[in-house]
Each structure stands twice: as C-alpha cells, then as structure tokens.
Amino acid sequence: MNNLRKIPSVDSILQHESVKRITEEINPEMVTALVREILQETRKRVSEGQTLPQNETIVDRVIEIASTRWKPWPQAVINATGVILHTNLGRSPISTESILSAGKASEGYSNLELDLATGKRGSRQAQVSQLISDLTGSEAAIIVNNNAAALMLGLASIANGKSVIVSRSEAVEIGGGFRIPDVLAQSGSRLVEVGTTNRTYAKDFEDAIDENTGALLSVHASNFKIVGFTHSPNIGELVKVGAKANVPVLHDVGSGCIVDATKYGLAKEPTPQESIDSGVDLCFFSGDKLLGGPQAGIVVGKKDCINKLSNHPLARAFRIDKMNLAALNETFLHYLRGDNETKIPIWRMISASTEDLLLRSEHIGESLSITTETVKTSAAIGGGSLPGEHIDSVAISIKTKSPDEVGKKLRHANHPVIGRIEDDRFILDLRTVLPEQDPLLLASLKQIFS
User: What is the CATH T-level fold of the domain 95-340, as seen in this structure?
Assistant: First the structure.
C-alpha cells in the first residue's frame, strides 16, 4: 500500500521537461491520457507485488509509447529481399510521375468530377476508363479500389441470385482468407463446381449450364501451380460455350500484366488484351501487381456489362479515391508512351541486367570496412504473380555469427533495410534495390558496421 502512494501524480509526470517537449508537438489532452494510461498500468503492477519503478523509468515509458504510437506511417524501407512484389512491404512501388500526379490531385482542387468543356458534372471514371480501353482493346472499363472488390461487384451485378460455374481447380483461396466460394456467396450467387482438381474440360461447363446459370467464371492460378496430369479449358473455349448458351463469361487474370512477360525470361502470363480478344464479357485484374501501379481493381469488357457494374449500388461502396486514380492514370500513360521499362519500378527491377547488378554489388562491397562477397542468386516475382518463377540476380552476402542480429540492426537503421537469410549468411538481393537507393543502402550498412 505504501508503494502505491509513492506512484507519481499525472501532473508531476507532465511537468517533466521531456514530456513537456512532447506536448509541444502533440495535443496535450492526448499526452495527458497517455500518462494516465501508463500510471494505471504502473499501479496495477505494483499492486501485484512488482517493484515500484523510478519516475525517470515512467517518463521513459511515456516517451517510448508516444514515439511509436504517434509517428508518421508507413515508414519507407529498402527491399533487399529479392521478392519484387512483396505484399508485406506494400507490393508494387509506383513511378515518380505517378507519385507527382497523385500529389497534384490532392494538394488542391481538380476536375475530378467536372467536365471543363461543358461546365457540367462529369465522371471520375471517364478519363482513365478510356485510356484503359485504348490499351486493352475493350469496349469499356471501370476502376474500383481493389481486385477483390472488382470481382465482387462483377458477380453481384451479373449473376446475383443465379449460379456461377467454376472449375473445381479454380475455387481457390487467393490470399488473406479471400476465397472464391465466399466471394460468390457474398455476391448473392451460387457456386457450381465442375471437373476435378487436376482436369476440367469445356464440356464440363457446357453440361452444367441450366436455366439458372448466371455466368461462367475462370480464375487464373496466380499464386499456385498444379502440375503433372492436368487439363483446363482455355478462355477461348469457355467463351464459345458461353456464347452458345447466351451465358456471360467472366475472367479474373489477377496480376494485370499487360506486356509480354516471356521477353524477360518469365513464364507466359495471361494479359487483359488476350482476354478481351477472346471475347470475354468481363476481365478483372489488379493495379498493384505486374501492372506496377497503385492499389486498384480494374474491370474491362463489353459496354453493356460494364454499365451494369457502374449502376450497381456497390460501385459507390467500392469507388476508387482521387489519389490512386491519378496515379493509375499516369501508370497507364507509361504504357501508352512505351516508357514503362524505364519508369515503372517493378519493370526496372525485372529488366535490370545481371552485369549492372554485379557492378553495383562490387561498388558497395568496396565501400565497406567489412568483408562482403558478391554472389549469384535468384529473385522471385511474388505478390500472387507468376508462381514459381525466378529471375537470375546478384546479392551482397555478409558472413556473420548472427544473421538475425544483422537483420535486426538493419531494420532499425536510419534507412531500414529488409534482407533475407541463407546458409547462415545475411543476403541483400540487389534485384529489388533500385540504383538510386544504393547510397541509402550503403549508409545503413556503414551505420550498423561502424
């Protein structure tokens, strides 16, 4: 009981010079509430028999929590993991031009929903939708806030109250608990699985169609592979089945790759252009994967189907914001101008030569006081795109007694660096580090090894 009485008052902690400095930057009421919270924790621990902490210890706790709870977020990190589309690190970084475009869209007013020619209300979708249609060959397009929302909107608009036929091998979980059967249920449609896990044919879809069929759905296996004795109908075959029965065909291609991935030594990835050419009614893809733009869900397809999506109540709930819309517009302009390989970060990473990576690794290694080794390795695409695909890469290898400790120190450097551990070595894969980040990477290495 005596120790409880020795716990300092809220005012005495607030009068400490270090805490006063916090109140100069943060709302004093918030700081006061934090001090009360910490003193309450202290009172509980002391009542349970723990030692009464010194006042300075309590102040240090206030400073620690304030600095972590009320800080700018998210924090920029250097991705040296070798995973290009790293979900935990925010997936695709966007181009400088896209960043500037997003900034301009939000720093002042804009013609987001105003037609400057007529002075009347316009559509936030019109400009970007036309650009997407020009690039993909679709009749129309609509953009929402992510691809899961896009698929949900498509199913709810086209097949609500009806059945949707899906190959058993494609009734998958895409990630984060996002499962195709659950999406179908939430959209108001009913799942009808056909075929087997490893082999499904166009005839399986045809045989399952009845008067209550609302759509045929094909989902690209973007984050897994089924190999061996397998068969799946191509999208063109499904379009023929759908056309014969007057049933719309929906195609989720996932990654949003609109260039030929084989040019970079990667496996063939289905593109929205090919999907449209095959005659699908709707094609869905992400903005922040192989497209290299901001988070967005993009739907391209036939105008009458896109109109149904645009007029559905969920379209407002899933609406994309102006910053991401501006960044997405700029991303598509890169493809229109043909400078995507030199401007969009993920395509800069994918197209970088191993010779350039070797030179960069040697330069960084020579600038350090510790011994490092330049090693050949392989980078992954990641982010639910091109599963199992790797690209030759080059890494800085640091031999150390404690790779975990090196990783921890680099995560806490002024410019945090995220690498990986292989064979008791800490690896910094330069495939996912842009050349302009080399000075920051070098500074972080010098900081922890000084």
Answer: Aspartate Aminotransferase; domain 2 (3.40.640)
Q: Where are the alpha helices (DSSP H) in 161-278?
A: 180-187, 202-208, 235-245, 272-278
pLDDT beyond 70 at 13: yes
Q: Which of these, 244, 251, 305, lies nearest to 278 by C-alpha position?
A: 251
- pLDDT tens digits, one per residue of 397-418: 999 999 999 999 999 999 999 9
Tell me the two tokens of residue 192. 């009808």
With CA atoms as reference, report the closest residue to 327 among 122, 131, 178, 79.
131
Q: What is the pLDDT of residue 230?
A: 78
Q: How does pLDDT run across 172-212, given as a tens digit for each residue? A: 776 666 788 888 888 999 999 999 888 999 999 999 999 99
CATH of 78-87+347-449, one of 3.40.640.10, 3.10.20.90, 3.30.1490.110, 3.90.1150.110: 3.90.1150.110
Cα-based distances in Å from 158 to 189, 196, 212: 9, 26, 12
**DSSP class of residue 33?**
H
Question: Could you tell me the two tokens for 9?
Answer: 């008052």
DSSP calls for 362-374: HHHHHTSSS--EE
Domain ranges of the chain: 2-68, 78-87+347-449, 95-340
- Whether the model pTM is above 0.70: yes
